[in-house]
Amino acid sequence: MMANDFSRLIRYNKEGLVRGQNYNISYEYFKMVIRKLVYLLIIIGLPIWLSNFTWIQVLIGFFLMHWVASIILSFVFQMAHVVEGVDQPSNDVAESTNWYVHQLNTTADFARNSTFLSWYVGGLNYQIEHHLFQNICHVHYKNIAPIVEELALEYGYPYNLKPSFYNALVSHIQMLKELGRP
Q1: What range does the domain containing 153 cover?
Q2: What gap in Å lies between CA 35 and CA 30, rounded to an integer?
Q3: What's the whole-number mean pLDDT along residues 77-98?
Q4: Which of the chain's ends, N or C, has fewer CB atoms near its CB within 10 Å?
Q5: Closest CA to 107 of 172, 161, 173, 145
């Protein structure tokens, strides 16, 4: 939601994170409002102005676009975090675990051999590498993944890999069944 950003900025300001980064809260709100207005003008305003679509058709397209994108993203994140073999640790366990080990324990790769899927989801099917190497472009994940897998297994850490999207989906359904049990 668009309003979520404003409430998050309020929370960050109350926690001192905005001042701690030497940002001016008023200026940050101003920038956020301007960015959102520019986005809405480009995504909604331009199609209304430059196409023959009615404003209601443009709004339906806008909401449909966001709905489809959210479904795709939710599938990707579910296949990477809620599958068999991935830990769902409590906060106490997560905080006491080495950060890198935590990433290996709580994420999974899937469909590493699918060039199309890797392109379509921007490399997010290489979720382990995405978490471990956040500043590396996703086009390199395919080359990094076998090295990470080999090192993880060599040192006795898990490396959760589902060979295909279908395998990840089946594993996700199994995990949902398991999590749904009392």
Answers
A1: 74-180
A2: 9
A3: 84
A4: C
A5: 161
